[in-house]
Amino acid sequence: MGIETTRILDEIDKHTARARGSEPEKIRESLAAIRALCDLLLEDGMQAPKKPRAMPLQTEPVNRPQSVPAATRLQEEGANGDSLFEF
Predict the structure, then answer these.
(1) What would the mean pLDDT of 70-83 be, rounded to a whole number?
(2) What is the SS3 string spanning 4-27?
(3) 14 in the Ramachandran plot: left (φ > 0), alpha (ψ -120 to 50) or beta?
(4) Distance between CA 74 and CA 87 in Å, rounded?
């Protein structure tokens, strides 16, 4: 629930106190607010609380790097070193 139940109940208490000492029009407004708050609590209570679900671990085989055969170096005329950027 986004709002705590105690906070909603406190709001219901406030509207109940307003309704007791008010004129008929204000009583109706307070009762409508109380009804809306009660509906909010009842609707939330009807839905099962969502429990966090455990996520299963993936059991896929781990991709391990395969050994690469040793590369043979090319010997070219005009090459002046081992660097890739030296032409």
Answers:
(1) 67
(2) CHHHHHHHHHHHHHHHHCCCHHHH
(3) alpha
(4) 13
Cα-to-chain-centroid distance, residue 73: 54
The SS3 of residue 84 is coil
Q: Alpha helix locations (H) across the chain?
A: 5-20, 24-46
49, amino acid identity = P
Query: In this predicted model, what pLDDT tens digit does every residue of 14-47 receive, in sequence order?
Result: 999 999 988 888 899 999 999 999 998 888 765 5
Q: Cα–Cα distance between 12 and 38 in angstroms, integer? A: 8
What's the half-sphere exposure (Cβ side, CA atoms, 13 Å) at 82?
2
